[in-house]
Amino acid sequence: MLTPNQHLLIFTDLDGSLLDHDSYSWRAAQPWLDRLAAAQTPLIIATSKTAAEVAPLRQRLGLQQQPFIAENGAQTVFPAGWREAPLHAGATYPEICAILAALRERTGFAFQGFADADDARVAEWTGLSPAEAHLARRRAGSEPLRWSGTDEQLAAFRTLLALHDLRLTQGGRFHHVMSRQVSKGEAARRLVKRLQHRRRRPLTTLALGDGPNDISLLQACDLAVLIRGRQAKPLALPGEFPGRLYRTRRQGPQGWSEGLDHFLSNGGSDHE
Predict the structure, then answer these.
(1) Selected catalytic residue, list 13, 15, 119, 214
(2) Is 270 noted as a catalytic residue in this protein?
(3) Residue 251 sits in a domain of what CATH number?
């Protein structure tokens, strides 16, 4: 049976997974966080949040010695002890915002991004405090959007973005625009190679997530926990997933803990 250990690498989404979608609390997951810390099992955040948002949160979660993936893979940040600069993938934030402004002027599509709002408006959209919203607006390589157009316009918007080598992915609250080659999964693969080289041995990988923007992350790992989300239609991993998949019955940090119970306490191996 798989148990928490130093050679197990766990990637986790935040909002709607480790963190409650509404309250941002991780209280229900704290027993597992303590257990992973005691076993020195690396827990790596992979989120749509910015590096500025994750830094203080990582401290409160006791994960400051671990790297993390921000902005859906646009940035990978390493612990201070590694003495490595953050990795940036894809287009820069000013480049993305310039393209979005030009497309909106050309098409008249109704959407708003964080660049179009101040801290107070982003706080209203997210439920964050104004100070936290300010950190959410310190972006490097992705832009969250509130889409107000039709589904047909959204499909056309995706096509136009692709012409600029950009793509749209859906998170728990927003659509996110980023470079086409950027994803949580690609960032996780790069990070696993880096860690395996540092440790000089293979690592078993497990990922937990609840949204469409987590699919690439789940596909990149050996074990995947698809946490029950708020989508009307259950998510599915496209194609053949060679690993082991577990779908939780509960949401948020309760579902997060359920997934770890399945793989690390019960030795579960069935696809559900």
Answers:
(1) 13
(2) no
(3) 3.40.50.1000
